[in-house]
Amino acid sequence: MAAGNEYRIPKVVLGSSAGQRSMPVLGFGTAADSPDSAVMKTAVLEAIMLGYRHFDTAFLYGSEQALGEAIAEALKLGLVGSRDELFVTSKLWCSDAHPHLVIPALQKSLGNLQLEYLDLYLVHWPVSARPGKLELPIKEEDVVPMDFKSVWEAMEECQRLGLTKSIGVSNFSCKKLDNILSFATIPPSVNQVEMNPMWQQKKLIEFCKARNIIVTAYSPLGAKGTRWGTNDVMDSQVLKDIALAIGKTIAQVCLRWIYEQGATFVPKSYNKERLKQNLDIFDWQLTEDDLHKISQIRQKKMIRVGVLHASDPEILEELWDGEL
Ligand code: NAP
Predict the structure, then answer these.
(1) pLDDT per residue as tens digits for the range 101-116
(2) CA–CA separation, 323 vs 321, rounded Å?
(3) 208: closest CA among 236, 234, 169?
(4) Which of 295, 39, 307 is closest to 171 using CA atoms?
(5) Based on C-alpha coordinates, what's the Rg of the chain?
(6) Measured between alpha carbons, how far apart are the two ends of the chain, in Å?
(7) pLDDT tens string 111-135
(8) At what angle do helices 102-113 and 64-77 cross, to 10 degrees?
(9) pLDDT for 6 beyond 60
(10) Which of 183, 216, 231, 243 has its CA 20 to 30 A from that of 99?
């Protein structure tokens, strides 16, 4: 195992960013069940010392401010030479997913983060909610149809203005991506979605690969211990057996598996040992037999209603385009 920041995290090139931008395949997730800024700031600094350079936040998470403070501290301490060495992603919340609100929302996120630009700005969900309301789950009566074309044009404008180096989406189905691609002048660089051995996203991975869109796996460990998560991934007997046989942890098997699928990933950990463990996945590989066993795991999507307060099958069909 490497020590200090000798861990080498591979990078992927983003297809349609301003200039040639690359993104470290492993990022640091910042969505926590009960956000604690001090704990998160310490974890970000530890992560930077270990070699993490990619940070995933969102307006919704309430973690932008603490991440910004930690980055400012890291720069002051000289843990990173300059802001350009970091890759920071944030996301447009549903109540701001209206053409005239996109640029102001990004500017607000930049203010929270104390940054001049983002590396990646994502449409958080393919859902627009009534402006001015930050509610989760979103009530059915507050959902309004998204004007995908105009929202995407505003995202493109964010990139043109230099407020972000690249743009993308999150929780988009193949069908919704196809729609964006039909009018985009700057195609999405990334689609961030739920992905782990229990929800392998085979179709979406192929679709995105063919269109030069990077898939980023969120909840790569099944978000065990969170209110939106499941124990199914970390308790999987198949993964346990593989981990035991190769002397790795279940988390490492999950992350390595995602890496071998060609996707990138943003596990969340605020624990130094686990941050280290999650980095230590780049100098070994799963066997064909392991990959076969994982491919046979029964598939079950963890996030079904997403951000919506809805049980109506039609609404869910519309959200996921039948890809449940
Ligand atoms: P996750 O990363 O799958 O799981 C997080 C949980 O796993 C935490 O309880 C963490 O605890 C634990 N953990 C981390 N490393 C571990 C290890 N090596 N061994 C055992 N347990 C470990 O779930 P997530 O937070 O849902 O997803 C990650 C990130 O994806 C989020 O933080 C967020 O940035 C992003 N996300 C995006 C969306 C979206 O809609 N775009 C949705 C959900 C999440 P400790 O902190 O105690 O280690």
Answers:
(1) 999 999 999 999 999 9
(2) 5
(3) 169
(4) 307
(5) 19
(6) 38
(7) 999 999 999 999 999 999 999 888 8
(8) 50
(9) no
(10) 216
In short, whether 277's Cβ falls inside 6 Å of ligand 1 is: yes
Q: How confident is the model at residue 3 (pLDDT cuts 50, 70, 90)?
A: very low
Q: Which DSSP letter does residue 36 get?
A: -
Place of tokens 């199914």: 232
Residue 274 CB less than 6 A away from ligand 1: yes
CA–CA separation, 96 vs 132, rounded Å? 8
216 lines ligand 1 (CB under 6 A): no
Residue 50: burial class (beta carbons within 10 Å; 0-12, 13-18, 19+): buried
Greater confidence (317 vs 291) lies with 291
- Using alpha carbons, list the distances in angstroms from residue 230 to 77, 116, 192, 248, 255: 38, 37, 19, 21, 16
Residue among 285, 300, 288, 197 nearest 240 (CA): 197
Distance 176 CA to ligand 1 centre (A): 25
Residue 41 to residue 143: CA distance in whole angstroms? 34
CA–CA distance, 112 with 108 (Å, rounded to integer): 6
Q: Helices 102-113 and 148-160 sit at what angle, rounded to 10 degrees?
A: 50
Q: Are strands 87-92 and 54-56 parallel, antiparallel or unpaired?
A: parallel
The catalytic position among 7, 52, 61, 121 is 61
- Supply 285's token pair: 């590989």
Torsion sign (Cα): 279, 52, 50, 37:
negative
**Would you say 292 is a known binding-site residue?**
no
Torsion angles phi and psi, residue 11, rounded to 5: -125, 155
Q: Which token pair is 299? A: 């598939």
Mode of pairing for the β-strands spanning 143-144 and 128-129: antiparallel
